Every structure is written in structure tokens, then in C-alpha cells.
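Exercise 7. Given the encoded structure of a 166-residue chain, write a plausible sequence.
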């Protein structure tokens, strides 16, 4: 009987809760933790990919550029089948795009074929594919992500530094 009350409370919460209640930043943070991706890296990649586009009215989630879709600019040709998507248009939905972006980041992190300098420079493969040459677009991308990671990390330390364990 005592277990019954928490189970009912959890069911009620799950029926009332929706991912739309989260801001994109909160959703990226939670999905990054779930996927085992560095949270600062996840936010940095989202910033590099579509950070100059305003958040209002979901504009960042509706970006399509050279076959890349949404906030994380997922290449539909490459990832549609592995992610089991019905259509490229699925990637224009915020929750799907964040899930897909962090799934791809998790995959690239676990399966990087080369290790450009630095602990997180493998992210060059997220942008440039398997081959990343010195001085290439992929290396410049990784440097940009690393810069945003430092910025995001400093901001989060200022914001949450008072919490034990941060």
C-alpha cells in the first residue's frame, strides 16, 4: 500500500509533464547527460551550428542549410537511416533534432578514428567526417567549439558554482 502512493504520484507527473516545458538549453543539458556527452561540448556544438539565429519562434530549429537540418545541423543524407528517421523533416522538430544531435555526438565520441590535438578536438569529425586534416575546416570547427566550451563552462560555474560538487 505504501508503494502505491508514490507510483500514482509518478504516473500523474508523467501525464502532466511534456518536453515542451523545458527550454532548449535545459533539454540539451538533460539529453547530453543521458547520452554521456560533455554538457559544455553539447552546448558549444549547438552554438557553433546555429547560435547566430534567434531563438524566438523556434527559428533555430527550422534551419536547413546544404542538407543539414535544425539546431544541431544534422546531415540527413548521412544520418537518416542510422537514426531510423522517416523523413528529413523530422529533424526540424526541436526534440528530435536535439536527440539526433546528441546521438551523433555520442557516436562520434565513441568511434572517432583520429584524435586531433586536445581532449575534445575529436568533435572535428562531427563536422568534417572521418578524415580531418591539419588546418582544415574540421580543425577550425573544433577550435571554435573549444572556445565556446570554455565560455559555457565559465558561465555555468558562475551560475551554479555555489552548489556542492559543481
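Solution.
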Amino acid at each position: 500500500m505504501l508503494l502505491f502512493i508514490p507510483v500514482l504520484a509518478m504516473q500523474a507527473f508523467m501525464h502532466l509533464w511534456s518536453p515542451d516545458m523545458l527550454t532548449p538549453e535545459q533539454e540539451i543539458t538533460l539529453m547530453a547527460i543521458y547520452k554521456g556527452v560533455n554538457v559544455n561540448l553539447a552546448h558549444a556544438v549547438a552554438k557553433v551550428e546555429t547560435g547566430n539565429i534567434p531563438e524566438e519562434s523556434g527559428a533555430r530549429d527550422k534551419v536547413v542549410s546544404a542538407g543539414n537540418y535544425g539546431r544541431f545541423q544534422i546531415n540527413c543524407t548521412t544520418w537518416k537511416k542510422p537514426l531510423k528517421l522517416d523523413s528529413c523533416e523530422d529533424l526540424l522538430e526541436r526534440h528530435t533534432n536535439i536527440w539526433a544531435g546528441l546521438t551523433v555526438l555520442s557516436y562520434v565520441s565513441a568511434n572517432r578514428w583520429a584524435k586531433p590535438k586536445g581532449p575534445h578536438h575529436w568533435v572535428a569529425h562531427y563536422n568534417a567526417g572521418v578524415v580531418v586534416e591539419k588546418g582544415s575546416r574540421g580543425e577550425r570547427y573544433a577550435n571554435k567549439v573549444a572556445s565556446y566550451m570554455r565560455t559555457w563552462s565559465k558561465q555555468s560555474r558562475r551560475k551554479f558554482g555555489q552548489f556542492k560538487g559543481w
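Remark. The longest strand covers residues 64-65. Students should compare their own answers with the one above.
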